[in-house]
């Protein structure tokens, strides 16, 4: 579970810090930096899994130079830093980790100054204080760290360390879940090779295989129940296995008894099935990130999907909280979702806003600023739901 993100010099972020709760909805108009935050998570995951050079060369949204912040004059930042805090399951219990990379642009190319993971000293853990069981969680994390170090394990490991490093192994497991779903309805409509123990891939290419696996784990019915609550008329999902071809497929059964195969399902229905499949798959890892969660769904059904997602996440304000709970990160530019939270936002909704920053001696820069959505608070530190709805509604009307 991700607990904190610090970004400086990456795309639209300068001196950016954000504590991440188990459930987080990021609201903002297009161009506000929502996608850039997920790009940072995707980039860090690439660095951990594939190495610094491969991650820099394999960016889908531009060359390496475009990862660095650019001010209003076109000048590109010389340095870029990303640090991510997390809680990972370890043999010693829930272990608080931090990983980070720092790059400097030198001689026409980015140079890594450091890329490492370390056991957190539990200094920047303000997120714990907002949990009702914060003291107990803090003590659990401290005990796990002490036990880890008592075994002679290093507290700092570079990404170039060998495959036997426990910290790197834990980090690889966590970071594999950071890339957001980028679901492709075309590939979700095709059968998938089975058996397949992999979690749902970001494109959804193995959706049919994961549904078949969930059938064997007695979890497919959960996906069907949730889908029926979101898509009117749905009765259940039926997994279909072709033993000769070793391929999995599925049908959606509607109440009148009609079985509809994936090629005849709408993009929105396929997206909903994929999201619910990832949610109920225990092998999908700790973090489920979904960009523009409302895409393909009727506005009246978006709230129900979010309710189903929130239900699977442990509430940090409750008396019993699991620090290894499933985490859900969503982005949206739709004002509809705010009504789902009514007046109880509890730090779970953040508004991203592009702001022109002017500093003495420096060129102006448009940067992403994150403010919690709340009904009240210290002036300038929050934004009200009414203000957010007004901004998003104005943007939507302006694009019609």
Automatic annotation (TrEMBL):
Coiled coil: none annotated. It comes from the Bacteria. Residues 1-44 form the RecF/RecN/SMC N-terminal domain. PANTHER family: ATPASE AAA-TYPE CORE DOMAIN-CONTAINING PROTEIN (PTHR40396:SF1), ATPASE-LIKE PROTEIN (PTHR40396). SUPFAM superfamilies: P-loop containing nucleoside triphosphate hydrolases (SSF52540). This is ATPase. One of its GO terms (molecular function) is ATP binding. Gene3D superfamilies: P-loop containing nucleotide triphosphate hydrolases. Pfam families: AAA_21 (PF13304), SMC_N (PF02463). Residues 248-339 form the ATPase AAA-type core domain.
């Amino acid at each position: 579970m991700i607990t904190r993100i610090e970004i400086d010099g990456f795309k639209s972020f300068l001196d950016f810090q954000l504590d991440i709760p188990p459930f987080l909805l990021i609201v903002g108009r297009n161009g506000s930096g929502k996608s850039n935050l997920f790009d940072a998570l995707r980039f860090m995951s690439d660095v951990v899994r594939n190495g610094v050079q491969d991650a820099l060369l394999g960016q889908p949204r531009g060359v390496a130079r475009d990862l660095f912040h650019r001010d209003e004059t076109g000048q590109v930042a010389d340095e870029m830093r990303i640090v991510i805090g997390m809680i990972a399951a370890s043999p010693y219990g829930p272990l608080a980790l931090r990983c980070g990379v720092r790059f400097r642009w030198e001689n026409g190319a980015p140079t890594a100054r450091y890329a490492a993971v370390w056991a957190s000293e539990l200094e920047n853990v303000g997120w714990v204080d907002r949990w009702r069981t914060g003291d107990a969680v803090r003590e659990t994390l401290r005990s796990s760290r002490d036990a880890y170090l008592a075994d002679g394990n290093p507290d700092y490991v570079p990404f170039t360390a060998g495959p036997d490093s426990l910290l790197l192994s834990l980090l690889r497991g966590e970071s594999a879940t950071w890339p957001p779903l980028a679901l492709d309805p075309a590939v979700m409509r095709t059968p998938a090779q089975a058996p397949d123990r992999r979690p749902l891939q970001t494109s959804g290419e193995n959706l049919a295989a994961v549904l078949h696996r969930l059938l064997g784990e007695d979890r497919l019915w959960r996906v069907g129940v949730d889908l029926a609550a979101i898509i009117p008329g749905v009765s259940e999902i039926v997994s279909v296995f072709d033993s000769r071809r070793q391929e999995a497929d599925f049908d959606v059964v509607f109440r009148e008894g009609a079985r509809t195969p994936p090629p005849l399902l709408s993009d929105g229905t396929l997206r909903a099935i994929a999201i619910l499949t990832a949610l109920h798959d225990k092998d999908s890892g700790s973090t489920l990130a979904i960009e523009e969660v409302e895409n393909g769904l009727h506005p009246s059904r978006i709230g129900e999907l979010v309710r189903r997602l929130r239900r699977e996440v442990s509430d940090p304000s409750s008396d019993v909280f699991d620090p290894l709970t499933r985490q859900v990160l969503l982005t949206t530019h739709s004002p509809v979702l705010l009504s789902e939270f009514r007046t109880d936002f509890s730090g779970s909704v953040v508004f991203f806003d592009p702001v022109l920053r002017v500093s003495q001696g420096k060129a102006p820069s448009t940067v992403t600023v994150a403010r919690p959505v709340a009904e009240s608070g210290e002036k300038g530190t929050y934004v009200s739901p009414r203000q957010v709805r007004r901004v998003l509604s104005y943007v939507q009307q302006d694009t019609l």
